[in-house]
Amino acid sequence: MGLGNVWHWVVPLLIVFLLFGRGKISDVMGDFAKGINSFKKGLADGDAPAPPPAQVTHTPPVTAPADEVRR
């Protein structure tokens, strides 16, 4: 009844092999391995330092003199 019973593992694995066959399972596992390698490569590329942000100069807004605003 527990997880140690061999038949609990054999029956689902047999069904998977019957549905997918040996070739498709090896293809899926190969694609899975390629995905993991690509993920690791992406993490390694992400460690590169980012370029510094561009320098932006701030100019104060142009305002009209106070006597012109009241008109």
Q: What keywords describe this structure?
A:
71 residues, mainly alpha, single chain, 2 helices
Descriptive notes:
The protein starts with 5 loop residues before the first helix and ends with a helix. 62% of the residues lie in helices and 0% in strands. The mean pLDDT is 78. The chain contains two helices and no strands.
Number-wise, the strands total 0
The rough form would be described as rod-shaped
* Uncertain residue segments: none
Strand percentage: under 5%
Summarize the model shown.
The chain is mostly helical and 71 residues long. 62% of the residues lie in helices and 0% in strands.
Topology readout:
Layout: H1 6-45, H2 66-69
